[in-house]
Amino acid sequence: MVLSKTALTSDDSIHSTFASRYVRNSIPRFEMPKNSIPKEAAYQIINDELKFDGNPRLNLASFVTTWMEPECDKLMMESINKNNVEMEQYPVTTDLQNRCVNMIARLFNAPLGDGEAAIGVGTVGSSEAVMLAGLAFKRLWQNKRKAQGLPYDKPNIVTGANIQVCLEKFARYFEVELKEVKLREGYYVMDPEKAVEMVDENTICVVAILGSTLTGEFEDVKLLNDLLVEKNKKTGWDTPIHVDAASGGFIAPFLYPELEWDFRLPLVKSINVSGHKYGLVYAGIGWVVWRTKTDLPDELIFNINYLGADQPTFTLNFSKGSSQVIAQYYQLIRLGFEGYRNVMDTCHENMMVLKQGLEKTGRFNIISKENGVPLVAFSLKDSSLHNEFEVAEMLRRFGWIIPAYKMPADAEHVTVLRVVIRDDFSRNLAERLVSDFDKVLHELDMLPSGIHANMANGTVNGVKKTAEEMQREVTSYWKKFVENKKTNKNTITK
Ligand SMILES: *Cc1c(COP(=O)(O)O)cnc(C)c1O
């Protein structure tokens, strides 16, 4: 880099071409540069490089919000310098967060009296929320076992093999054994009967997912609750349920109000939801709410006083931004129940447009259900010549980012493509995507087998590629399952 001082001051002609203005010399990438550069140059260099990222609006791999109203963008920018943990300094922001917790707890039918405060907290996302919920279950279980004079060193958690990676993290980081109900072809969620069979005296909770990451399908929480009530009666245990409603928590209340999955079921003690998924806020906000005060052990709550008044906190981190909390409050009051229902209805409609368009090609098996998270998961009927990874790769040329992935154990021979429908995915885009699918299928038919990347066996045009090269080709949005042959865990992140 870049502009020598003389160039700035004495030779204006040097400003006249774009490239020589900012990028005549290279800047070090992995070492802090010795000298400063002008702010315009820094902006331009970074902005140029960022152009090679995918376009968030065409990123159909993720549930996470990529569009908000300009008024809310403005509110977020205006509060970007507020640290959320400084409750004494920013009492209004703290109050908005409490209002959000209360609105969400009531949306999930928490048994709260008039004016009674809900128990919950804003987090960075569902992952942090799941860690907190898991810790509460673990501690309650340990306390009970200790009081009974029973061993408390082998806690476990029962889930389906379709869990999101955050639960695996919880299990590993906080030393809880993960007992997974296997999937099978054609059935990609946790089977409640098998889950309840796996429950033993060391089970701290069963986790059900409202909106499986893989297929969007809602698990049958009501059946799980009823079976578990029976088992608890027989055994004298009181194994509870946590619902990971990361994506479904802001869908079910609006589209399927009759569906009982939340605090209406007595064993559901805590629920997490991602504010940044169908809560319609940009990345960086999640929520966890507890049924009642007694479901969150006091000893996990810290009272800090270094910022002024005595404040209770129960989060894994300390400082973080406030913008997302403020944005969540904006969405809740701006849209209201009516607005959220409209958004979810529209997502559902656009999902149907896409699903029917894909069915019409005659080339795909649709794996996702119509009621669940608005997404379409599908696989090729015939993948003998070209597979789902090649379809995904070719769609990248049109700008679309669509992941292909293998299902977890024991359905790993099934590969699916998944398109997530968000608020900003309009009908027009859905129709365009269908027509681009048509083009890709047509092109693939013209090509000999395997000419494109065969991601599944790590070759491109028959040439073995390094893991790094492969990853670049697949997109950075998901990790390879095949590498991890032993567990073949699903590691898509959103
Ligand atoms: C997205 C997702 C998560 C992780 O949520 P973050 O908010 O991204 O941390 C957990 N569980 C499920 C079911 C998800 O879909």
Describe this structure in words.
The protein is an alpha/beta fold and 494 residues long. It folds into 3 domains: 48 residues, Irregular (MYOD Basic-Helix-Loop-Helix Domain, subunit B); 259 residues, 3-Layer(aba) Sandwich (Aspartate Aminotransferase, domain 2); 128 residues, Aspartate Aminotransferase, domain 1 (Alpha-Beta Complex). The protein has a 7-stranded mixed beta sheet with strand order 1-7-6-5-4-2-3, with helices on both faces. The longest helix has 38 residues. It is globular, with a radius of gyration of 25 Å. The structure holds pyridoxal-5'-phosphate. Its cofactor is pyridoxal 5'-phosphate.
Based on the model shown, name its key terms:
4-stranded antiparallel sheet; MYOD Basic-Helix-Loop-Helix Domain, subunit B; binds pyridoxal-5'-phosphate; decarboxylase; disordered C terminus; Aspartate Aminotransferase, domain 1; Aspartate Aminotransferase, domain 2; glutamate decarboxylase; 16 strands; pyridoxal phosphate; 494 residues; 7-stranded mixed sheet; globular; 36% helix; PyrdxlP-dep_de-COase; alpha/beta
In short:
Helix 4 runs antiparallel to helix 11 (323-360), helix 6 crosses helix 7 and helix 11 (323-360) packs across helix 13. Helices cover 36% and strands 14% of the residues. Residues 1-10 and 474-494 have low confidence and may be disordered.
Mean pLDDT level: 88
| Radius of gyration, whole Å | 25 Å
Please state roughly what percent of the residues sit in beta strands, choosing from under 5%, 5-15%, 15-25%, 25-35%, 35-45% or over 45%: 5-15%
Name of the CATH architecture of the largest domain = 3-Layer(aba) Sandwich
Tally of distinct domains: 3
Task: Give a quick account of the main beta sheet: strands, pairing sense, barrel closure.
Answer: 7 strands, mixed
CATH H-level superfamily title of the largest domain = Type I PLP-dependent aspartate aminotransferase-like (Major domain)
Shape: globular
Uncertain ranges: 1-10, 474-494
Q: How far apart are the termini?
A: 38 Å
Order of helices and strands: HHHHHEHEHEHEHEHEEEEHEEHEEHEEEH
| Bound ions, cofactors and other small molecules, one mention each | pyridoxal-5'-phosphate
Instruction: State the strand order across the main sheet.
Output: 1-7-6-5-4-2-3
User: Can you count the helices?
Assistant: 14
Q: Which CATH C-level class of the largest domain is it?
A: Alpha Beta
Supply the helix-strand structural class. alpha/beta
